[in-house]
Amino acid sequence: MGKSEFREVIKHFYLKGLIPKEFKGELDEVHGTSDPAFATVYNWVNEFKRGRTSTNDEDRSGRPAEVTSSEMIDKIHDMILSDRRIKVLEIVEARGIFQGTVFSILHEKLGVKKSRQHGCRVCSQWRTKAIV
């Protein structure tokens, strides 16, 4: 049984006038360990008391999860081709994405890493892993 279905059952018991303690035991008997925790049941009953009618998740605020789209990969690839000495933070600032996402694109998607020329850190360039 999915989250939304459990919420429908919780809503049903709430509309019947039962309190969470009265129907949590029944949920445990029927569904065993797959049923929601008491705190979850209690929270949903409170949501219904406040007038909520939907059992679906509401949209969450905040920054959405980033997707490493092929468009973003191409843009970063073009950036390192035009300037092999570009820094990760410069890419982060130019593209407006997280540093971890840039690392993921560079290392996992593009297969590049920084290599030092003549042991000089300032002279390091992005190269494919096969060349390094």
TrEMBL record:
- Database matches in InterPro entries: Transposase-MT_Hybrid (IPR052709)
User: What is this protein identified as?
Assistant: Mos1 transposase HTH domain-containing protein
